[in-house]
Structures are given as structure tokens and as C-alpha cells.
Amino acid sequence: MNKIFSPFLIHHPFRNINFALGFLITLILLLTAILSLIYTPYDPNRMNLARRFLPPNSEHWLGTDQYGRDILSRVMRGAVNSIVVGLVAVSIGMGFGVFLGSLAAFYRKWVDEIIMRISDVLYGFPAVLSAILITSILGPGVINSMIAIGIFNIPIFARLTRATSLSIWERDYVTAARAIGRRNAGIIWNYILPNILSALIVQGTVQFAIAILAEAGLSYLGLGTQPPHPSWGRMLNEAQTFMGTSPYLAIFPGCAIALTVLGLNLLGDGLRDMIDPKLSRIQQQI
User: Fold this and answer.
1) Residue 117 backbone phi and psi in degrees, to 5
2) Which domains does the chain have, with CATH numbers?
3) Average pLDDT value over all residues in the chain
């Protein structure tokens, strides 16, 4: 049986350029979000109409918006919203998805067919479209956005869990555990989940990036985070009217979204490269 974290036990993980860059960008995002809870240059929601539409300057490094609010402060606080939505959405998807995928891999036959066919239906809709449908029913708001994005993640983790678990159920150590009377729940917890954990972590980083994009899309459409709370997608929505005169209003939140998604994708690619046994051996030989 593979050790739980054996894929990550690489002597020089930062020699993987994707992992190094992804880790650095993600770390900066996390530190920015944590810092914004303690300190921001200005109150993100404080309006000052006398200082609206100021371009980037020494007082307001990223300028001010149409209400005189400091853009840097709002971008910093918006990172918190993106991280919370991403974490909750991925947790919902992973929690229910792993449970359903484990059931499908264990019972198989009609249970497997029902779970997988429902997953196929849910998986057929893009993340943003699924979220739009659900928030249209439940109503706009950040909580409903997290639920909607989380529901989209369920079939992804369910399919991954089923696919990776099926081969492990045929391993000799699992057969031996069943022969000595180990309960199925114990086998899943002690033998199946530890061996698929690395794949789930990699998929989680990818879905985290998708969740941030979906939340930004919903906020842009007015279905996600509601004003006055800062949201990168909402900032893009408000900036579109002033693109001709104040393009920086859209550039900075847009760059925040792009860099965050890039960092998480690079992190996921790097983790996948290190977890793959063939690629890991190649890296250790270099």
C-alpha cells in the first residue's frame, strides 16, 4: 500500500517550475487575504465623492473608483471573498463527491449506474451555467453562489473517486483485509482514501481555480456577492461603464483574477507532475 503523502516526499519540490511559481502566487494571495483582515490602506467600503476617478498615485496606489473608494483596499478584501467561496465550494464538492464515488466503486452494478448517470447529467453543464441556474432559483448572494458552485463540483469528484478506487479494490492488501473480516467502512477509510488522497488534492486545486472564476462570473452578472462587499467580479461589472476614461478600474481586479487562476493551475500541474511516478523518477534523475 502506498503511503498517504509519499507522492509529496520529493527531495527538491521547488525544482519543478510549475509548482514553484504556483506555490509563490498562491502564497501571495493567501497572505494578501490575511493581511486585508487586519489592515487595508483605506476602508474598502468608504466613499469619498470628492476623490473619485483618481488614477494611480502616491496616496491611492491603484487609484479610486466612481465612488471614491480605494481600489487597492477593495482588491485586497476581494481576495478573502474569493478564497472563502473557493474553499467552501470545493469542500462541498469533495465531501459529497468522495462519498458518492466511494459508494459507486464499492457496490457497483445498479448503484454505480445511478450515481454515474446523475453525475453525467450534472457534468454536462458548465460551472458558470450551472451556478446561474441554481442562483436563479435560490436567489443571488454569496452563500447561494457557494452552494451552486459546490454542486457543480460533486460529479467531478465522484467520477474521480470511483475511477481511482476501482483498481484499489482489486489489490491484494484489500482482499486480505476483507478476508480477515475488516469492515467495508474501515477498508475505505484505511486503505482506499489514503491511496486516492493525492489525486483528490490535485483535482481540488484545479477546482479551486474554477470556483474563483465561477464566483467572479456570478458577481459580474449580479448573482454572486452583493454590494457593498468587495468582489473582483462585481468590480469588473462596475468598471465596464468607465472603460474609455478609467480603464484601470477593470485592469486591476481583472489581473487579480487572472493571476490567482494562473497560480492555482500551475500549482495543480506541479503537484500532478510530482505525484506521477514516472515524472517523479525523471525529476530525481535530473
Assistant:
1) -70, -40
2) 34-285 (1.10.3720.10)
3) 85
